[in-house]
Amino acid sequence: MIGHTLSLRAGLFRFPLFLVLAAFAFGQAAAPTSRSGRRPPPTPANPALPSLVLIGDSTVRNGSGEGAGGQWGWGEPLADFFEAQKLNVVNRAVGGLSSRTYLTGGHWERALALVKAGDVVLMQFGHNDNGALNDEPPGPLRARGTLKGTGDETREIDNVLTKQHEVVHAYGWYLKRFIADTKAKGATPMVCSLVPRKTWQDGKIVREAYADWAADAARQGGADFIDLNRLVAARYEGLGPEKVEPLFGDPHTHTSRAGAELNAACVVVGLKALPANPLAHAFSARGREVAATK
């Protein structure tokens, strides 16, 4: 498990020519805005290249990934750490979803259709998995919760949102499904534990139980694991509450651009700590600057 603080150069959090070079740095095909005003999900800019496909929730891709309301997921700046001429970074995360609803809503099926042999799928869920399994009016109808843990227990519900009978599984079951499906395509699955919320207790950032369950699911499914929850928490603790405050775009969950950059850098640290990193060849100069930890 990776728990060391990061050693990052001061220049890591600068944004030179970001607005000008964003389309190239993201490594994603440009897409016109739809009539709804939302950009369609990104696809590989160059299908001939290997792809890093990201799946997750709003802490990976917030809204359309353009920083609305000053909130960013780490999937956008992560692309800056790779060379677009060597790797597509395709951020298919969707805000508001859990591991369960990413699957049942058809998002995983559509993302998996983009995956080919030699690609990498990097997944991070957990922020929305602790919701209710089902919901009742007049409250918000989300029905996105999962059972706790990584076991095979299930619960059957009549989903008030979809009006369908549904078998709900444990959080880890859904991660293991993504892992197995990825392997079946000849691609490499990787699991990230969820980034921590800005919740302080006795001078420490509170760690999440979902981080341990993500680690268990990765081990059971035979996937690489990046303990992003502890990596980022350790970085926050090194900075202290005052310096962490501007890293968030809301009270405790969604990061600002600077916070998303820090989280993305932590992903790179986690990649460099793996025994075999299939993305090492594609690091940009910025990615190579991130110090590795043991």
Describe what this molecule looks like in 3D:
The protein has about 290 residues and is α/β, with parallel strands linked by helices. The protein has a domain at about 50-130 and about 180-290: 3-Layer(aba) Sandwich (Rossmann fold). It contains ten helices and nine strands. The strands form three sheets. The protein has a five-stranded parallel sheet with strand order 2-1-3-6-9, with helices on both faces. Strands 4-5 form a two-stranded antiparallel sheet. Strands 7-8 form a two-stranded antiparallel ribbon. It is globular, with a radius of gyration of 18 Å. Residues about 1-35 have low confidence and may be disordered.
Biggest sheet descriptor: 5 strands, parallel
* Broad CATH class of the domain at 51-128 and 181-289: Alpha Beta
What is the ordering of alpha helices and beta strands? HEHEHHEEEHEEEHEHHHH
Q: What's the alpha carbon Rg, rounded to whole Å?
A: 18 Å
CATH architecture of the domain at 51-128 and 181-289: 3-Layer(aba) Sandwich
Low-confidence region ranges:
1-37
- CATH homologous superfamily identity of the domain at 51-128 and 181-289: SGNH hydrolase
Would you count the extended β strands for me? 9
- Helix fraction, binned, reads 25-40%
Please, how many helices? 10
**Straight-line N-to-C gap:** 10 Å
CATH topology value of the domain at 51-128 and 181-289: Rossmann fold
- Average residue-wise pLDDT: 89
The assigned structural class equals: alpha/beta
Proportion of strand residues: 5-15%
The spatial strand order of the largest sheet comes to 2-1-3-6-9
**Large-scale geometry:** globular
